[in-house]
Design a protein that fits this description.
alpha+beta, 5 helices
């Protein structure tokens, strides 16, 4: 039986902290494609208060989440337990990108591991609905380790490559919605 929660209490925070990954879903206001992205690295998610969380946004295959948040702000994050205790937790809310060259990003720094070489910014979400469900059909899986491939890939990228991505595949969503601004800072310009 699903339960709705009034806030991110200690038990929910504990459950979130035990998960090795989460999923992010967004969609444009009109037509277009729904985006669903898996996210890893445990040091990239933080509950900031009873109704707010944030996660580090790393360069990936595009900028769908950023474009959709600029369009309408709607976002759902899902945590799914793969252990013996089955549970799914969904956090529904309104999100926004916090650029890494902003004063607000400086206030977020203590919550994260900032060593990821593909750091693009932070997504901050104000939660308006918190609900869980059983997850009875989710398989049991065991974590072997965090996958280092993304950090390794970004660690080998040059400043020019990141700059080309900002004005290239990160400038718009696959549906043509604006994503990163042309003056978005490259990762090497972000103080660590």
């Amino acid at each position: 039986m699903a339960k709705v929660f009034s806030h991110l209490d200690d038990a929910l925070r504990k459950f979130i902290g035990e998960q090795s990954m989460f999923f992010v879903a967004t969609a444009p206001s009109e037509g277009g494609r729904v985006n669903l992205s898996p996210k890893g690295y445990r040091d990239t998610f933080a509950v900031l208060d009873d109704h707010t969380f944030a996660y580090l946004d790393l360069y990936g295959s595009g900028a769908e989440t950023i474009a959709h948040l600029r369009d309408n702000g709607r976002i759902t994050v899902m945590f799914c337990s793969f252990s013996r205790t089955s549970r799914i937790l969904r956090l529904f809310g309104t999100g926004r990108l916090v650029r890494p060259d902003s004063a607000e990003f400086d206030t977020l720094r203590p919550h994260f591991g900032l060593q990821h070489p593909g750091l693009r910014g932070a997504i901050v979400v104000t939660v308006d609905r918190i609900a869980d469900s059983c997850g009875y059909s989710v398989p049991y899986l065991e974590l072997v380790d965090e996958r280092p491939v993304l950090d390794k890939l970004h660690g080998g990228r040059s400043d020019d490559e990141f700059a080309r991505r900002i004005v290239g595949d990160n400038a718009t969503s696959i549906d043509g919605l604006p994503a990163l601004e042309p003056d978005h800072p490259i990762p090497s310009a972000i103080p660590r």
